[in-house]
């Protein structure tokens, strides 16, 4: 299965007049940019959004910038978008996916393997472990995983399904979604799927965002949706790797590493820590490392 490198992901309404600059040079450190034709725009603005997007897409071909995706509104909008010049985008974000509707999207994409997809788990079905297990099994039965880049978790829609809204100053893991996220990780991640973290909508509370990013990492989520560019650097800083962790990761991945050894005061066991070590090395390659600690690491 494809290993994603999405980084911070910024959604932008497809009605905006600056789709080219947003998708190229505006934010050099942005991991991915998602042009939205769904919740970010009103129903009556969909035709204008599609017209605007169709005009902008050819200008993106061959241009540097973040990974570019389009969030479709529904199957009908996907049909329209598949007629556009999509050479400048990496794939599509599919909204409100469950086992009862993913097939309709994937049927349209069966002859477009170059377009990777990110289904979004954000309906009440995503609150059910049984329904999510059915979705996972369906993906494998139909042979879709090679085209699935990651699964996105739609935090605000899931909160809406529960009839609640997150309080400022509280992370995802300090409210009702903690159980949901833990369940989704258990259902999908052991089977090779990556999951990305929802947005923190209080964009001027960077301290809580920083804490949430660390919790995302501890839970094994990949990528973070941001609501405003001011959140970008906080997410990037959270993804940087401590030099001690990187040293441990390299030691664990050494072909001749002992079965068990200690380093930096921790037990290292390649049989159980290899996946963690691989993720640490990938994060260091993409986001860099944190400044070295002044204290000296313990030997082994």
TrEMBL record:
<keyword id="KW-0460">Magnesium</keyword>
<feature type="binding site">
    <location>
        <position position="157"/>
    </location>
    <ligand>
        <name>Mg(2+)</name>
    </ligand>
</feature>
<dbReference type="Pfam" id="PF15617">
    <property type="entry name" value="C-C_Bond_Lyase"/>
</dbReference>
<protein>
    <submittedName>
        <fullName>Uncharacterized protein</fullName>
    </submittedName>
</protein>
<dbReference type="InterPro" id="IPR040186">
    <property type="entry name" value="Citramalyl-CoA_lyase"/>
</dbReference>
<dbReference type="InterPro" id="IPR011206">
    <property type="entry name" value="Citrate_lyase_beta/mcl1/mcl2"/>
</dbReference>
<dbReference type="GO" id="GO:0046872">
    <property type="term" value="F:metal ion binding"/>
</dbReference>
<dbReference type="InterPro" id="IPR040442">
    <property type="entry name" value="Pyrv_kinase-like_dom_sf"/>
</dbReference>
<dbReference type="InterPro" id="IPR039480">
    <property type="entry name" value="C-C_Bond_Lyase-like"/>
</dbReference>
<dbReference type="InterPro" id="IPR015813">
    <property type="entry name" value="Pyrv/PenolPyrv_kinase-like_dom"/>
</dbReference>
<keyword id="KW-0479">Metal-binding</keyword>
<dbReference type="GO" id="GO:0003824">
    <property type="term" value="F:catalytic activity"/>
</dbReference>
């Amino acid at each position: 299965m494809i290993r994603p490198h999405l980084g911070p992901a910024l959604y932008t309404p497809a009605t905006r007049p600056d789709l080219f600059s947003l998708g190229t040079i505006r934010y050099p450190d942005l991991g991915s940019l998602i042009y939205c034709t769904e919740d970010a725009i009103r129903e009556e603005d969909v035709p204008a959004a599609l017209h605007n997007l169709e005009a902008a897409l050819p200008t993106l071909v061959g241009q540097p910038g973040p990974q570019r995706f389009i969030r479709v509104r529904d199957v009908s909008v996907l049909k329209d978008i598949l007629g556009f010049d999509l050479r400048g985008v990496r794939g599509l974000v599919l909204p409100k996916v469950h086992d009862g509707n993913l097939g309709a999207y994937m049927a349209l994409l069966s002859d477009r393997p170059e377009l990777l997809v990110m289904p979004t788990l954000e309906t009440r079905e995503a609150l059910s472990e049984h329904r999510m297990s059915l979705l996972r099994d369906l993906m494998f039965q139909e042979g879709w995983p090679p085209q699935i880049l990651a699964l996105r978790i739609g935090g605000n829609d899931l909160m809406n399904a529960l009839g609640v809204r997150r309080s400022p100053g509280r992370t995802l893991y300090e409210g009702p979604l903690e159980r949901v996220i833990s369940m989704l990780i258990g259902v999908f991640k052991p089977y090779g799927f990556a999951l990305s973290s929802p947005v923190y909508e209080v964009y001027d509370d960077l301290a809580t965002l920083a804490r949430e990013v660390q919790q995302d990492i501890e839970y094994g989520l990949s990528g973070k949706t941001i609501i405003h560019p001011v959140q970008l650097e906080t997410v990037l800083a959270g993804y940087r790797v401590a030099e001690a962790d990187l040293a441990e990761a390299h030691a664990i991945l050494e072909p001749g590493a002992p079965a068990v050894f200690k380093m930096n005061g921790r037990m290292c066991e390649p049989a159980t820590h290899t996946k963690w070590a691989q993720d640490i090395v990938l994060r260091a390659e993409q986001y860099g490392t944190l400044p070295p600690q002044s204290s000296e690491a313990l030997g082994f």
